[in-house]
Design goal:
The protein is an alpha/beta fold. It folds into two domains: about 80 residues, Orthogonal Bundle (Helicase, Ruva Protein, domain 3), CATH 1.10.8; about 130 residues, Response regulator (Rossmann fold, 3-Layer(aba) Sandwich), CATH 3.40.50.2300. Helices cover about 45% and strands about 10% of the residues. A four-stranded parallel sheet has the order 2-1-3-4. α1 packs parallel to α3 and α2 packs across α3. The termini are far apart.
Length: about 220
């Protein structure tokens, strides 16, 4: 069953979120206080509850969102040693172009690159046409979900790639920024979505070469 916008968690889901909080406290013990982890969980929950049409997978998505943010913060604060480049893809809704770019980079680079994506005005779901077009290439992004960009993720990124978010995209001194001019696939026929997908692949491969990251496939 799909939840309406602004729907609250069920009693069972609340329990699952509490269990997720305990996992994060264990995984990030010695890095962040329990209060910080609880705050990240609460913020992630509030964001997803307020805008997305989400099924019973909501507790999983809350944990993933909070975990990504904590990983980024640990990197910013020098609490982990990670020499891999980190790339952040940004668009408006985080439902199309940025999701395809993240999917391509994860597929081609594997664990050699840290990959994040976000939006200035996140949608409720990833575009189904985008999911279908990526599936044609053997890349499954059906479990991804739109999320907002957050301060710690932008600060942690080595490269920030923007796609149509204009002045809404965050600008931090000292970051490498690229702007990829690509058509918005939202509401477009599959043929146009494929063109955008293929254009993104070419740009991702070029970015990998510049970062000296070899493609797995």
């Amino acid at each position: 069953m799909t939840m309406a916008h602004g729907a609250k968690l069920t009693t069972e889901q609340i329990l699952l979120v509490k269990q997720a909080t305990q996992r994060l406290k264990s995984d990030f013990a010695g890095m962040f206080s329990p209060e910080t982890i609880e705050r990240f969980i609460t913020e992630s929950q509030e964001d997803l509850e307020s805008r997305a049409r989400i099924t019973t997978w909501m507790p999983v998505l809350i944990e993933r969102f909070a975990r990504d943010r904590l990983r980024a913060l640990a990197r910013v604060e020098g609490l982990v040693v990670d020499t891999r480049p980190m790339v952040l893809f940004l668009c408006v809704q985080n439902a199309g172009r940025s999701q395809m770019a993240a999917g391509w980079l994860r597929h081609l680079a594997g664990d050699a690159v840290e990959v994040f994506s976000g939006g200035s005005e996140p949608a409720s779901d990833v575009n189904q046409g985008v999911i279908a077009a990526m599936a044609e290439m053997g890349i499954d992004i059906s479990t991804e979900f739109p999320r907002p960009w957050t301060d710690e993720v932008v600060r942690a990124a080595d490269v920030v790639v923007t796609m149509g978010c204009g002045d809404a995209c965050p600008v931090y001194p000292g970051k490498r920024y690229e702007d990829w001019e690509l058509a918005d696939p939202a509401g477009q026929p599959i043929e146009l979505v494929r063109d955008v997908r293929d254009g993104i692949e070419q740009r991702v491969r070029r970015l990998m070469a510049e970062l000296h990251v070899a493609a797995r496939v």
